[in-house]
Write a structure and sequence with these properties.
The complex is a heterodimer. Chain A has no helices and 11 strands. By secondary structure, chain A is an all-beta fold. In chain A, the strands form 2 sheets. In chain A, strands 2, 4, 5, 6, 9, 10 and 11 form a 7-stranded mixed sheet that branches. A 4-stranded antiparallel sheet of chain A has the order 1-3-8-7, with no helix packed on it. The chains are: A mainly beta, B mainly beta. Chains A and B meet through strand 4, strand 5, strand 9 and strand 10 of A and strand 5, strand 6 and strand 11 of B.
């Protein structure tokens, strides 16, 4: 069974640009969550999608957005990049709701210069 | 609000020693889930265990064991006879059952270094 796939693995962007990250969940999983990991703030929840609907959103500005497609693949977008957006972005795939085991991808490391 | 505290920032042990990683959580919910994840240098979070709030039985899986105590709001993780491959950052996490969404609140992690 294939795991969670995140692309790209590494990205370097310039301040002010926008970026789109992709996550393909485990086959059959309908929930995709996104997390930001930084040395200062640790692991923080961004948002979660289930069957193409956003069910919950963390405390991040509107520059962070996401969507989920009918095949459960998800994308997250960050517009008007800031230096502070440099982080490891992790995607988690789970079967359905609260308490389901969440399996993570290897992440996309975004560097904003 | 949900909160997870991992007071130990870094731990170093010599190979074959036992080590316990502490996790204390706060929640007002009666139903919740607790998790442990391992993050090796590659960056991927590796699922280790999930425990729901109604199941206080301790669990053992090979060299790993978990002690869940609701009375003290703790969910500690012990590695027996540690190995170099156990070196990683370990995260304890708590689910947020309010929304039905599967989002987790993570502790700040404990970096474990096993010295050969």
């Amino acid at each position: 069974k294939a795991g969670v796939t995140q692309t790209p693995r590494y990205l370097i962007k310039t301040r002010g640009q926008q970026v789109t990250l992709s996550c393909s969940p485990i086959s059959g999983h309908r929930s995709v969550s996104w997390y930001q990991q930084t040395p200062g703030q640790g692991l923080q929840f961004l948002f979660e999608y289930f069957s193409e609907t956003q069910r919950n959103k963390g405390n991040f500005p509107g520059r962070f957005s996401g969507r989920q497609f009918s095949n459960s693949r998800s994308e997250m977008n960050v517009s008007t990049l800031e230096l502070g957006d440099s982080a490891l972005y992790l995607c988690a795939s789970s079967l359905d709701g609260t308490g389901s085991e969440a399996f993570f991808g290897q992440g996309t490391r975004l560097t904003v210069v | 609000a949900q909160k997870v505290t991992q007071a130990q920032t870094e731990i170093s042990v010599v190979e074959k020693e036992d080590v316990t990683l502490d996790c204390v959580y706060e929640t007002r919910d009666t139903t919740y889930y607790l998790f442990w994840y391992k993050q090796p240098p590659s960056g991927e979070l590796v699922f280790l265990i999930r425990r729901n709030s109604f199941d206080e039985q301790n669990e053992i899986s090979g060299r790993y064991s978990w002690n869940f105590q609701k009375s003290t709001s703790s969910f500690n993780f012990t590695i027996t006879a540690s190995q170099v491959v156990d070196s990683a950052v370990y995260f304890c996490a708590l689910s947020d059952p309010q929304t039905g969404a599967n989002n987790l609140f993570f502790g700040t992690g404990t970096r474990l270094t096993v010295i050969p």
